[in-house]
Amino acid sequence: MLVQPHLFIPGPTNVPEPVRSAMDIPMEDMRSPEFPKFTLPLFEDIKKIFKLKKGRVFLYPSSGTGAWESAITNTLNVGDKVLMSRFGQFSLLWVQMAERLGLKVELCDEEWGDGIPVEKYADILAKDTAHEIKAVFCTHNETATGVTSDVAGVRKALDAAGHPALLYVDGVSAVGSIDFRMDEWKVDCCVSGSQKGLMLPTGVGILAVSDKALAANKTSKMQKAYFTFEDMIATNDQGYFPYTPPTQIYRGMRVSIDMLLEEGLENVFARHNRLATGVRKAVDAWGLRLCANHEKWNSDTVSAIVVPDGVDAVEVIKTAYYRYNVSLGTGLNKVAGKVFRIGHIGAVDEVMLGGALFGVEMALRDCGHKFELGSGTGAAAQHYSDTATRSASSRAGVTARKAA
Fold first, then answer.
1. By C-alpha distance, which of 209, 221, 202, 132 is closest to 169?
2. CA-CA distance, 180 to 37, in Å (whole number)?
3. How far apart are CA 18 and CA 24, in angstroms?
4. Percentage of residues in the chain with pLDDT exceeding 70?
5. Is the pLDDT reported for residue 397 higher than 80?
6. Phi and psi of 323, rounded to 5°?
7. Angle at which helices 392-403 and 247-263 pack, to 10 degrees?
């Protein structure tokens, strides 16, 4: 194959050339007296991606799952009651982790394709007058089903009930791509990962924590070692880490943060919405539907597309990969074989997504779905053409390429 595979899974995402170039450097001394000049500003600037002014951000050599574990074990205690919902593979895994770590989960089990049941949360919190619930968990963007939930609505429910519970958010496929406001929504722990909106290789679990969560750490007695806040704080304050850091990824992170801030976070969010809308118009034109059960749930970072009767999503994915060199996301757990996913997160633009949709059209046709070729790509092209501007993202990209 003369070209690299066209990657349209919802993570790991495409790495922009300036970011990749920044990581293509010799190994460096992570304990040199010069290293803090790089890391201390990095710690502060990544807080801007979360819209966090106080608190702090921890960078763990792990996946986002490691940051999940850190959030729980550093702020809660075995036997604590927590409120969670399950409506996709990743919210399911978060529930499993909470139970394995000894938390008592009050669970809202929702249909896969729905999001966080804000009204149920509000009712449960209002009735919890003894404040037995110590934390409320929200998966902001359920990557498996292409569903984005209303975190701000959960905060309103907490405030309306006068409830002091900590608020935790899984922002792995949301942060840096979908509007997220840690300070405004009074989120206490937000988890993300390097391989999604930050456009980096997999390998860094990111945990943003509020001052309230840092205070909760003082009374947390859960067993922890690798993920403990205390060791991170003691070394991070000096510009170092308690264990060997992935320095090359952090060099790339410096550039990815600069690119996002130069584009402007509001412009980043608008770009993702515009690109996702084009994909959704293509889905409509194909006569298909999203896994998301309502427009309000539609994700701007990943579309999970339900295949019609008689078509196997696994075959669509295999055909796209082997025949057309396009990587699509597979269906997970309950939606395996029923959906395929198009990731439109991170470093993507109209032409890239046009190629993805072109490949999907051919794979769908080859697998037996009858529709007019070009209908989906044409609908997306019409949308992108109608809404085209000389965007901040293109200017930021040019600037970054010049800098590289």
1. 209
2. 28
3. 10
4. 96
5. no
6. -95, -35
7. 140
Going along 140-264, which residue ranges are E strands?
A: 141-142, 147-148, 166-170, 189-193, 204-209
Mean pLDDT, to the nearest integer, of 84-105?
A: 98
Average confidence score pLDDT of the chain: 95
Residue range 330-349: average pLDDT? Answer: 97
Element (H or E) spanning 37, and its range? helix 36-49
Quick one: pLDDT at residue 390? 56
From the list 236, 263, 230, 264, the residue with the least C-alpha distance to 250 is 236
Residue 183: half-sphere exposure toward Cβ, Cα within 13 Å: 10
Query: How far is residue 5's CA from residue 11's CA, in Å, rounded to a whole number?
Result: 14
- Cα 24 from Cα 7, distance rounded (Å): 21
Is residue 270 predicted with pLDDT exceeding 70?
yes
The values of phi and psi at residue 25, to 5°, are -135, 160
pTM (predicted TM-score): 0.94
Average pLDDT score over residue span 320-335:
97
Q: Which two tokens stand for residue 169?
A: 């958010």
Where in the sequence of the chain do the CATH 3.40.640.10 domains occur?
18-262
Q: For the structural domain made of 18-262, what CATH number should be given?
A: 3.40.640.10
Q: Is CATH 3.90.1150.10 the classification given to domain 6-12+264-403?
A: yes
Ranges for all domains in the chain classified under CATH 3.90.1150.10: 6-12+264-403
Angle CA(141)–CA(211)–CA(247) in degrees, nearest 5?
A: 65
Write the DSSP assignment of 118-137 as a string of letters: HHHHHHHHHH-TT--EEEEE
* Sign of CA pseudo-dihedral 40, 44, 50, 54: positive
Instruction: Find residue 56's DSSP bridge partners.
Output: 209
